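chain below, 414 aa
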Amino acid sequence: MRARTAVLCSVADQGVAALTNILVLVAAARLSTVPDFARFSAVYLVFTVLLGVSGAYTGQPLVLKRGAGEETRSACRSAAAFTVLAAATLGAALAAVCLLVPGDTARALLMLGLVLPVVLGQDAVRYAFSTLQQPHLALLSDLLRLACVLGALGTQVYGASPARLITLWGLSALPALLLSAALLHRSTAGTPLLLRPMLRRGHLGQRFTVEFGVGNATSQLSVLGLGAVGNPLLVGALRGATTLFGPLNVLFTSATSFGPPLLVRIPDERRRIRATAALAAVLATTAGLWATVLALLPDRVGRQLLGDTWSVAAALLPATGSQYAAMAVGTCGLLALRMLDPRTTLAIQVVFSLTTVALLAGGYVVGGVLGAAWGLFLGSLCKAAATWIRVARLRRRTPAAEEAVTVDALPSAP
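prediction:
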């Protein structure tokens, strides 16, 4: 497959996967009361965190493999099998615990545990196809999943319970998983299945999981925690607002995935950083324009999108739009740091993820759900500012370092 076709298939696959998540939340919002959507959102947030952990532990190390030899094909087969087995173990434990806990949220979590191997397994095979340079197969699988999930949720009527929606959503991924497994088996049959290396100390996925935990999962779980100890509607309101900004997540993911290969083609480092800053400006402007469009939506249209949840989500749009604009700047700042010095990103992720949690909690204490949304914006803004300050400091050091290397190398030249 040509490089341009592969990139187009990869971008399309990311778009279809993101669209599926958006439409699942939109369908759940339209089919649920405000309290039920809050419960569904809490469970779906748990899944989002587990999905991120799975991708960090098995998916990200997998896509760093090079070539299509037996070692790479074995790694793809092993990663998919490891994910299904780990998800089955974790899902069984989650279901067993929730079986003893009363309430609608516990029942929904129980069903999540039962379908976890299906949804995480299907996502793991997507990484395998990417590694095998067969993104068109991942796209085919995700298109099938999109069709199945829309068909399953489209049969439901208003008032469906969170547990029922989670069950239908999870089982709708089964046809895509079976198709993906058959296609992957055709490409990797006969290669050894090696699961033990992924459990050894030093596995690269362990570092990626830590970075995900401090960079993404912390803020997501803090929202869930505030919903548990404070207002349960907080999770549904924030989730409803962020769902409307789903298309921007596709742009952010594409910038992170395809930005480095394109930017490294620019020979001069100063020009690369300027290009990254220009990308940040474009993405931030796009976020602002999208927030404006959403704010101008008639109430009737908003209710068609999110149902009863629109009334609480609409009030958060200015704060969430500002947060996404700050996230655009921060995402591109981290992209610039990875090109300058990848070792600097983890410290920033740790410090400012904790800062975001503190601002989220403080905002909630001061201003309730709306205050929490503005707290998330302030956290993203601080993180964005820190990344670009670090970029500027590294840029000031670079010329001196390059000059020192050049002078030291001259005497040894023949």
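The chain has 15 helices and no strands. Residues 400-414 have pLDDT under 50 and may be disordered.
thats it, cya
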